[in-house]
Amino acid sequence: MSKLALISVSDKIGIVEFAGQLKELGYSIVSTGGTSQILKEAGIAVTPVSELTGFPEILEGRVKTLHPKIHAGILAKGEPAHMEQLNKLDIQPFELVVVNLYPFRETIARRGVTLDEAIENIDIGGPSMVRAAAKNYERVTVLVKPSRYNEIISQLKENGEIDKQTRFQLALEAFTHTAEYDMAISTYLSNEIKGNEFPAIWFLSGHKQQALRYGENPHQKAAFYYIEGKAEEGTIAGATQLQGKELSYNNLVDLQAAWEVVSEFTVPAATVIKHTNPCGTALGADILESYMRAYATDSISAFGGIIGLNRILDAKTAREISKTFMEAVIAPGYTKEALEILSNKKNLRLLDMG
């Protein structure tokens, strides 16, 4: 009996290639609606869910995978008693479940979306299958991220199966996926209630951007998280580090402060920040003049500070910066010549907000 994979994805990136490789590895594929159609058009043989269950999709697709032949096939343990029950009921166990969910967050992000439209994009069957497969990670592999496809195919080709540690990691990703999904739904519905500016429960979902050199003090561990969808809104979560040592918590705080200060101005502006306090902030005819004025305000305190600029850093300004020790620079961009000059200061952190 061939191994069975269940594929039902909203994000169809890479799914045709992935399914094709599964077929080459001897998997049979069960699939739903749109996913099934795309795979069939690509010449990949699939069994529709309705054919497997013997029950049609109903209620405009609201009910299609909520069936014992699906969930028993996912949730059955690998032990003989469970396999015997499946055999008696003519249910085949799934080895692999590949599911991602209706695009609820993308839907509510659209301008003018109605409550009815949002409600129709709340996935029910998808989270049920994901959670079932994640719960049964001892036997079943669950995939919710297309970025994992190549890794899974590689393991299957090399070992013929997915190792337990990977299955556990994928289960964690799956539960995180459904948790964030439900959080988005709860937050949206809460915002739909007038006068509910301060709900009883407030959710935040942080995505790890990077590990930090240390926390507020050198003996503390720390990491930098951002809220998805907010990184581009004037925060350093949207910055790219071009060179330099790892950032610390204090670096992040000062970099954000520096960027916020210079972003207040439309004319060329520069600031030097130390422990969130400006040692100097100045305007000028160009960014070089702005920086020189800011640095001259208190050149002693500026030593080891964070520089913020609201114009592209050019070669002349880079030469001036290189004359003293600074921890970091944040700017909307850097000329090639400026990067070459500052590359000699290998520990100097350069962040690009462009």
Mind explaining what this structure looks like?
The chain has 354 residues and is of the alpha/beta class. It has 2 domains: 188 residues, 3-Layer(aba) Sandwich (Rossmann fold), CATH 3.40.50.1380; 141 residues, 3-Layer(aba) Sandwich (Cytidine Deaminase, domain 2). The chain is built from 14 helices and 13 strands. It has a 6-stranded mixed β-sheet, with helices on both faces. The protein has a 5-stranded parallel β-sheet with strand order 3-2-1-4-5, sandwiched between helices. Helix 4 packs parallel to helix 8 and helix 8 runs antiparallel to helix 10. The radius of gyration is 27 Å and the shape is elongated. The mean pLDDT is 91.
Give a quick precis of the structure.
This protein has 354 residues and is an alpha/beta fold. The protein has 14 helices and 13 strands. It has 2 domains: 4-191, Methylglyoxal synthase-like domain (Rossmann fold); 212-352, 3-Layer(aba) Sandwich (Cytidine Deaminase, domain 2), CATH 3.40.140.20.
